[in-house]
Amino acid sequence: MRSGATRAERTAERRTQLAQSALATLGELGYARTSLREIAQNSEFTHGVVHYYFADKVELITHCVRLYKTQCVTRFDEIVDTSTTAEELLERFALRLVESIVTEAPLHRLWYDLRTQSLFEDAFRQDVLEIDETLQGLTWRVVTRYAAFLGGSPLLDERATYALIDGLFEKALLHHIAGLPSAGADLAARVRWLLPQICPGDKSGASTAAEVA
């Protein structure tokens, strides 16, 4: 930990360390089969330490997913900020979605597990809604930037657009976990098809990054 940090900062840093350590176990076992003791057994931290920083597994799991999804948002925002044409943005977005499924499937599986559990448990329902709103905003930034490059506006609203892309992503995740080799390619192809349908734009008035900035 950083020298000179306040107690609150040290606590936040330790909670982040614990969350990062717990993500692998949570991604493998899911919400129902994971306890604080199980997490401690699969990390360098004792059960007492884990319990000191997190009251229960609901608090820890929510913190884990929030941490991971924040990192996801940062990576996708980088695509929005640095792409220079609609074609480049679409291609990078599609490939990043595929890469995320291939390299981080257990963590996405944990997110969908937690989101489903929130239908039955109100303890973390508000946290799930807030995380979902963040992901919806991420998706909308990609889509509206893509539309701006094409000189138009999305035909669907933010919530409907997110539902479509999230549905494609969840289905591809399931196929990937099931071992279907075409899962990634199918996802990329569907995203490449979907965005132009949502944002037909005005091809004659397509813009560059400098023009839409």
UniProtKB/TrEMBL annotation:
Keywords: DNA-binding
Residue intervals passing through the bilayer: none
Molecular function as annotated in GO: DNA-binding transcription factor activity; transcription cis-regulatory region binding
A Pfam family matched in the record: TetR_N
Range of residues in the leader sequence: none
Residues of the DNA-binding region: 35-54
UniProt cross-references to InterPro entries, sorted A to Z: Homeodomain-like_sf, HTH-type_TetR-like_transc_reg, HTH_TetR
Record-linked SUPFAM superfamilies: Homeodomain-like
Domain HTH tetR-type: from-to ranges: 12-72
Protein name, per record: TetR/AcrR family transcriptional regulator
Species annotation: Nocardioides agariphilus
Upper taxonomic lineage: Bacteria, Bacillati, Actinomycetota, Actinomycetes, Propionibacteriales
